Amino acid sequence: MSLDTTIKGIQDIMRKDAGVDGDAQRISQLGWMLFLKIFDAREEEYELEDDEYVSPIPEKLRWKSWAADPEGITGDSLLDFINDKLFRTLKNLSFDENSDPRGFVVRDVFEDSYNYMKNGTLIRQVINRINEIDFTSSKDLHTFGSIYEKILKDLQSAGNAGEFYTPRAVTQFMVDMVDPKLGEKVLDPACGTGGFLTSTIEHIREKYVNSVEDHRILQESISGVEKKQLPHLLCVTNVLLHGIEVPSRIRHDNTLARPLRDYTQKDRVDVIVTNPPFGGMEEDGIETSFPANFQTRETADLFLVLIMHLLKDGGRCGIVLPDGTLFGEGVKTRIKEKLLQECNLHTIVRLPNGVFSPYTGIKTNLLFFTKGEPTKEIWYYEHPYPAGYRSYSKTKPMRIEEFAPEKAWWDNRTESEFAWKVKVEDVIASNYNLDIKNPNTVENDHGDPEELLEKYKSLLNEISKVRQELKEELINSLNHN
Asked: At the topology level of CATH, where does 3-136 sit?
């Protein structure tokens, strides 16, 4: 049976349960179950490698002890076990500073998780379907990666404004262009479900990891912060799937809540790749963590200020930002001024409409910059739709192959119908407006309405005049006959 069928079967079983209401709860329920199953598969490997390995989860609460047997506990007994023992214990795991950090990961995952299902028999059916997936099989792991992304996409349709899935093509392109290297500290300060982090892991592993020591260095270089519980749970599970053995650097927190002055040199990073939430507002008081002249409740703007602060000199960033940041004024102008003074904003890739459909119709841009030197010129690249496309959709999403022209152009830049450059002096003269249209394409500009109306009236007068002349000629012609 295919994994796709297995996941669909699980979701169908959950729909029968009176306690699970909607996609978000279904995915949250599936999330903690998959986490325990995947954690259990990883622990099997740890035990094979280390005879003295001790699980941070009490033996009777490990997946293999209560869930692995298809004829195991079910019905009310299973429901009581999950609610009264499993959740209560894992939410309150206690450790000291010498404890296995994996234990902190388990506790963080369960801290705000819930068992929504009320029917123990249906829970057993879900568990048995999950057990059909072998998380020690590289084939199943690879296939499950695609299904996991489908689950994440399903989640986004249950989200609200500013929360959406970043297309895999966008995360991969951005990571490829920023090119994080082995040993560099990589951060996503609004990591969501982990799309940028897993793209980074794959990129570094493919290009730079050649030994056990390289693998260890990679493990210690990936970090992320996510404010909301469900995306955090899914992110931890996602990086576990991608080979991060102790995802303790994926924190459940709000990066913006910490005063900017409290971030020190040890918090600085080499690379940031991120799609911060935009279109939403932060809670009251968050903006006071920032200097007075940059205070705003617009989330994307605050993240841009934070990122400039967190990057080391020479550090690189790829960030998704809405059009509003490019042309916005007031605080946005001051933030852009700081960006161009402190960083080299070398590239803006302008994405077409519909990249994030159906989650938002807001037009977006990919900004790439390096900290430590001021901007002198900015290259723009307008990403076109593929031939035959008028928009993107769930059935016709953006594909990584579409970025081949940008990749070929990246290190050998010339102007074209899609690419142009702008001097920083021109941006400053326009009050830091970065919303610069492509000068190499003819806009469908129909002109000024008042001028058009005058032309229209003039044309009507000419038509009337010609009609009158023709009428007179016809009358004269008839009279002569």
From this structure: Ferritin (1.20.1260)
